[in-house]
Write a structure and sequence with these properties.
By secondary structure, this protein is of the alpha/beta class. It has helices at about 10-25, 30-40, 40-45, 50-55, 60-65, 70-85, 120-125, 150-165, 175-185, 210-220, 240-250, 265-275, 290-300, 305-315, 340, 345-350, 355-365, 365-380; strands spanning about 90-95, 115-120, 135-140, 165-170, 195-200, 225, 250-255, 275-280, 300-305, 355, 385, 390-395. Helix 10 (about 210-220) links the parallel strand 5 (about 195-200) and strand 6 (about 225). Residues about 1-5 and about 315-340 have low confidence and may be disordered.
Amino acid sequence: MSSTSSDLHLSAAELAAWLRLALTPGVGNSTARRLLTRFGSPQAVLAQTHSALQDCASSAQATALSSLPPDRDKVLYRTQAWLQARDQGMAHALVTLGDPRYPPALLQTEDPPLMLYVAGPSRWLEQPTPLVDHRRALAIVGSRNPTPQGDANAHQFGQALASQGWCVVSGMALGIDAAAHQGALQAPRSDQACTVAVLGTGLDVIYPRRHTALAQQIAAHGLLLSEYPLGTPPLAPNFPKRNRLISGLSAGTLVVEAALASGSLITARMAAEQGREVFAIPGSIHAPQSKGCHALLRQGAKLVETVQDMLDELLPWPNAAASASASVPTQTAATPTAATAEHPLLTALGFDPMGLDQLQALTGWDTAALQAWLLEQELDGQVARLPGGLFQRLVRS
């Protein structure tokens, strides 16, 4: 028998049992999954005797399951109110293990979450199909402090992928994450989520707060997703942990820019461990934001200059990526076109950050003329002004 939208809503008793199982101190996802495999449902688990529970749990865990978690009633009330909220075609859902909407790819990752809190268009949340098809999803992650070119690359790749029917998955952090989401949101609308943001907080706690408007846009045209209960604040350990979901929901992970000590490299490592593809965009040898990408490339990540480079790896049939019309350049595709070659100053500036003195030494132009030219190029979107008095040439699709 096929599921209907009414079958997807948990009853009050089911919701209370799921929350109690998830919130019981000392009972993690792994133990909870064993208990569910053995007894079938949270209600059945909670109905067992202490000795029966010890078939799958320790004595301390069995004792803990015999009493209500201290915050269960508060969380239950908050979750019920949140699930009932509806606003102009948007809805909230709690997707549990065994729900037909639960992404199957997450079951193959380490420590699959018991529940996913999801916000998005009701027409998607009320369908008995997986929320995300990882075969058509790609993660884009990177630095919270990207260079202007890195920010532009993330936006362009996000828009190009979403335009071709791919779902862009990221973490809604500052920098590369936000640019990728914003690019995907600017793609033509389709009948599926153009982007998914995996949060490291409860879905009712937007972090960073400046991304409140971005979160609303994603919920309107994509999905917001979290494994953490409502009200969970931004806690440092939760963000690296959620990265396994970003990579697990995706066929591959693209790192646009990343320092050597970067959470993006954690996501890339998790992607590799999950058997997913890892892609990296190379950058300037002088930019700290490129060091992590270069390390990934040395470790076997696939070098990416265009969207086509990724699709050639991900689409299994010959010439299947031929429809990928968008060829997104990066700063490493530095062969000047006829248009850029017309002005020798752009050629002299190259694609690495450069100071005014260095550019003056290369070109022989006087300071006033150079400053006027750089301002003109900056206003035209061809050059970005960086901290420290540096300038960098930009490539835009």
